[in-house]
Amino acid sequence: MEKVPMTVSGFAALEVELKHRQQVERQRIITAISEARALGDLSENAEYHAAKEAQSLNEGRIQELESLIGRADVIDVAKLGGDTIKFGATVKLIDDDTEEEKSYQIVGEPESDVKSGKVSIGSPIARALIGKKVGDSVQVTTPGGGKSYEVVSVVFR
Questions:
Q1: Is the separation of the CB atoms in 46 and 32 below 8 Å?
Q2: Are the beta carbons of 74 and 8 closer than 8 angstroms?
Q3: What is the CATH number of the domain that holds 82?
Q4: Which of 36, 49, 104, 108 could form a cystine bridge with 6, CB 3.0-4.6 A?
Q5: Structure pTM?
Q6: In the structure, what pLDDT confidence band is assigned to residue 110 with cuts at 50, 70 and 90?
């Protein structure tokens, strides 16, 4: 079984989602199925079919979360340090073309969210950043084309 690296906060978020799906969503869906069954003929009962589909999706996500939690390699970023970019680092970059400043934290696949500045360790930008230091220039090949950045800071928090 392949270990999945993730931060402490990413692991906690998965646990919260799992608990919610098991204790809240599962019960809500069971109630919806019971209510839909009471409406009669199941072959033409849209509410019943929708509730059964929701149950299937919820149970699938529960299995996925249990697998991720079981394979998690939780890394406490606060205990990391150094000036080289690695998993968990929060990196501040300046776009060489636009002078725009961007900040990214390199996290595990399950917790990545580009809109909140968390990029997956397997993403093109993270792969380009790993091993770099402050002052280094980084060339990133993205689906939208090539980009060039300068590393301004590296922190672990």
A1: no
A2: yes
A3: 3.10.50.30
A4: 108
A5: 0.84
A6: very high
Could you read off the pLDDT of 8-44 as tens digits, one per residue?
A: 999 999 999 999 999 999 999 999 999 988 887 777 8
Residues 26 and 38 grouped into a single domain = yes
Cβ–Cβ under 8 Å, residues 88 and 7: yes
Domain of 97, in residue numbers: 77-155
Side chain identity, residue 65: L
Q: In this structure, what token pair is assigned to residue 50?
A: 């929708």
